[in-house]
Amino acid sequence: MFYFRSVKRHDPKPYLDASITLRDGRRLGYAAFGDPSGRPVFWFHGTPGARQQLPPDAPRLARERGFRIIGVDRPGIGHSTPHRGRTLFTFADDVTELADRLNAPRFACIGLSGGGPYVLATSHRHPDRVVAGISLGGVGPTNGEEGAPGYIRLTKWLRAVAQVERPLADVLSLVVQPLRPLFSPVFELFVRFGPQEDRLVFETPEMKQMFAEDIVGATHQGLRAFVSDIAIFSRPWPFSVRQIRVPIRFYHGDADTIVPVSHSAHLAALVPNSRLKVLPGLGHFAGFCNTATLLDEIDALWPTP
Questions:
Q1: Element holding 100 (H helix, E strand)
Q2: Distance between CA atoms of 138 and 134, rounded to whole angstroms?
Q3: Furthest-apart CA atoms within the chain: distance in Å
Q4: pLDDT exceeds cutoff 70 at 153
Q5: Is the peptide bond before 40 cis (omega within 30 degrees of 0)?
Q6: Which residues of 70-89 are buried (b: 16+ CB within 10 A; e: fewer)?
Q7: Distance (Å, rounded) from C-alpha 112 to C-alpha 288?
Q8: 24 DSSP 8-state letter
């Protein structure tokens, strides 16, 4: 049974915070948590977010279960070099190159919100490498043949962003840089006055601290990468989710006011070998709050030697 649980153990620091140089010369930032010799799980942050956007109890729980969790900065975020023209697939290729460097021939993927599409893309692109994927309140396609129905308002907004991606990103980056010192107090206001279902997630100082620190670190290169994320999600995806053969699990709160639960319901109806776990009365960050359940799910799906 999935249940809501606030995180009370604070063990947030990675055992490794580093970057690699990719074959094309770009840098890719990552942070590793848990058991250094454990089974690898790549954790894809939300939009916005960065490599250390991880539940504070995740390192301890990963060590106990024999997992190493690897958070990855997408291009233009944190320690990663911007990548003009990036797509869902180019990041999937970046992840597998990182996996090669970390001696991870097989791995699982977990993604929160805007990280969800990258779980699906990596699973589709590299089915020989990915053993399982979990999407937590993930974004679904809003355009193309497999675009989810009923998202007219959201779809129009996303299409508008896609059309003005670069100028919008430049303007937002100029605006946001002087405001970065205010991110922590602004985040505190969100915690205090945001949707009740999501406020519960941030009732512990550990979770509030993690998100506040993560957003500051994530934006030191500006907001271009986050606008690119939105544009990427809004365009037709470069693959059919019907062709994914990796086991996928969707977790979604039915009180999510950020990404409607219908996104995951639509995807679960299309993706073979997938299951949808609707979390009654919970919001956008619900799946983020029970690391033990997520890692146990991955453990159950991991192929036996």
A1: helix 88-101
A2: 9
A3: 52
A4: no
A5: no
A6: bbbbbbbbbbbbbbeebebb
A7: 7
A8: T
- Count of residues for the chain? 305
pTM of the model: 0.87
For residues 263 and 233, the answer to whether their CB atoms sit within 8 Å is no
Please tell me the distance from the alpha carbon of residue 268 to that of residue 288, in angstroms, as a whole number.
19
* Residue-averaged pLDDT of the chain: 84
**Tens digit of pLDDT for each residue in 52-96?**
999 999 999 999 999 999 999 999 999 999 999 999 999 999 999
Encoding tokens for residue 100?
């090669």
Q: Given 2.40.170.20, 3.40.50.720, 3.40.50.1820, 3.40.50.2000, which CATH number is that of 16-301? A: 3.40.50.1820
CB 19 within 8 A of CB 79: yes
Backbone angles phi, psi at 280, to 5 degrees: -60, 130
- Strands, DSSP E only, in 145-231? none
Residue 90: strand, helix, or coil: helix
Cα–Cα distance, 233 to 117 (Å, whole number): 8
Sign of CA dihedral 116, 117, 120, 122: negative
**What DSSP character marks residue 203?**
-
